Amino acid sequence: MDGERKVNLGEGVPLNSSGAANIFLNTGRSKVNPDGTVIHLNTEKPADVGVHINTTFSIASSKKIKVLFVLNFLLSVICMVISCSIAFYYWNEMISMRRQLDNMKDQFLLNHSQDRIESSPLVAEKRHMFKGIDVREPRMDSGAKADISPNARRYYVEDLGEDMVLVDSRKKNPSTDKAPVYDLSVFKKDPLIAHFNGAVKEINIGGNMILGPWVRDKEVSSKNSEAKIELNNNFVTIQESGLYLVYAQVVYLTHAPNCFFIWARQPSQDPRLLTTCATGDDSSSRPLDKSQISCSVQTVTRLYKGDTVNIAQREPNRTLWLRPGYTYFGFVKLSS
């Protein structure tokens, strides 16, 4: 407070100073006067006196306030518990009422549906309740035989494994009561497969038009295929008649066009053409050892026991790759 007159007063000092005055009082709680300082201001000109009081207030916590705080907290907890209990009670009541309404609805629908259901000719009327169980018995055993028309059809149940059907009793053969037994081993047999690869890696056929020699691929061919499809160097002989899938592929090492035929022939009969395959020429500038032309064909035909099957080349002097994966032919029996 620079430029102002400071008057430090203690307790019991009158204020008789004239003129403008600013009074600074430092008061506080002391051991002599534990209730604090009581200040009395007496001045001739109260408007000219400015009072600045620096004091320290201390608030002592009371036990009553603590008790009231604890009681307020407990009351809040009790109100919360009561509210939750009431809400849970009404929630259970609502669930119970909903279940009762659902049961009444189901009972209503059941009663009205029973009124509309006509009596089935295969089911007798209801008997009395026996130990809380609704028992029905077949109409044929209910004693009401007089109600059945003499022209009514009678049925029996035929067991077909997982399925059962009603069959007219007039069509039932009384001599055969047991279900027929089928030999399923016929359906479990492996198909007849005979696969042949070239016996040499590369060959020039020259003037021999019959392609070969061939060797049986035992990893692909089925067991005992030798007895049903015999291999005789450049041709095969069919020993079991049936419907066959016949397939063949030939790889040529040439730029010229090529064509081959698959023939089947019975002894002392004219040959039958099963299928044919033809290629165009290779007009590229690749060297001959890299100019590979393949021709692949397959057909379904019926072969007979004693048929001789071979592959015949149309053009002479053709170089063939007979190695496995390039040139091959074979048979798959589809049915008898």
Overall 3D form = elongated
Q: Which sheet architecture does the biggest sheet show?
A: 7 strands, antiparallel
Instruction: Show unreliable segments.
Output: none
Helical content stands at 10-25%
Order of helices and strands: EEEHEEEEEHEEEEEEEEE
How many helices does DSSP assign?
Answer: 2
Class of the domain at 193-335 in CATH?
Mainly Beta
Strand portion:
25-35%
Using the 3D structure, state the CATH architecture of the domain at 193-335.
Sandwich
Distance between the termini: 130 Å
What is the CATH topology descriptor of the domain at 193-335? Jelly Rolls
Query: Got a strand count?
Result: 17
Mean pLDDT across all residues, rounded?
A: 76
Protein structure class: alpha+beta
Protein name: THD domain-containing protein
Family: Belongs to the tumor necrosis factor family.
Subcellular location: Secreted
Transmembrane segments: 67-91
Short description:
This protein has 336 residues and is an alpha+beta fold. The protein contains 2 helices and 17 strands. The protein is elongated.
Properties at a glance:
about 325 residues; alpha+beta; Jelly Rolls; seven-stranded antiparallel beta sheet; TNF_Ligand_Superfamily; membrane; cytokine activity
SSE blueprint and pairings:
Layout: E1 6-8, E2 21-26, E3 49-54, H1 63-116, E4 155-160, E5 163-168, E6 193-198, E7 202-204, E8 214-216, H2 225-228, E9 229-232, E10 235-238, E11 242-253, E12 258-265, E13 272-279, E14 292-303, E15 308-313, E16 319-321, E17 328-335
Parallel strand pairs: 1-2, 2-3
Antiparallel strand pairs: 4-5, 6-8, 6-17, 7-16, 9-10, 10-15, 11-14, 11-16, 11-17, 12-13, 12-15
